[in-house]
Amino acid sequence: MSTQNPYQAPTGELTEENELYGKIRLFSPATRIGRIRYQAYIWVASLIFYLVAALFSVVAPMVLNAGGISISQLLLLATPLYLAMIYYSIVLMIQRLHDLNRSGWFSLLILVPLVNAIFMLWIVFAPGTPATNDYGHRPPPNKIWHWLCAFITPLLLIGIIAAIAMPAYNQYVERAQSMQQ
User: How far is CA 54 from the centre of its chain?
Assistant: First the structure.
């Protein structure tokens, strides 16, 4: 006679192989992205934006000097670029908030001074929900290019800070030495 204990723990295998991954849609706020993917997408979008802006700043003086277009018309042509970047940044922020199991409305915190700095640190560094949450399945694993882009950003920031700080420090040392003499 075999009796089953209703209080016995299940013996099923709990692996992540059966875990479903959500679909990544770049321009839809209804999906989730992790912190590495968020940093990579922001980096690539910023790079594209700055390249187009640089091209625009090279072409704009030539067009203005030719006299065929006014500066207000030129700014009107640049407006879609700025609007596209703002829209894409907001969509990525909402996707990241969904990964943190928070509403996309939290993205309005970016408009509050001082709170926005803490909010961005939270967006960038907080780990997402490890499994399915209210906003869908977890995002698929990151690819190598996501990791590369995400780690290029801090290296670039350190390089920029060093490029600014080193000459300023050298100037300070020279002034201090000249004051002592």
Answer: 21
In a domain, 136, yes or no: yes
Domain count, the chain: 1
Q: Which of 33, 7, 22, 15 is nearest to 132 (CA)?
A: 22
C-alpha span between 100 and 96 (Å, rounded): 7
Considering only CA atoms, which of 146, 149, 150 is closest in space to residue 24?
A: 146
Q: Copy the structure tokens of residue 99.
A: 């990964």
Q: How does pLDDT run across 136-149, given as a tens digit for each residue?
A: 888 999 999 999 98
pLDDT tens sequence across 155-171: 988 999 999 989 988 99
Q: Is the Cβ–Cβ distance between 134 and 101 less than 8 Å? A: yes
| Structural domain boundaries, residue 94 | 23-167
> Does residue 7 form part of some domain?
no
The single-letter DSSP state of residue 24 is P
- Structural domain includes residue 9: no
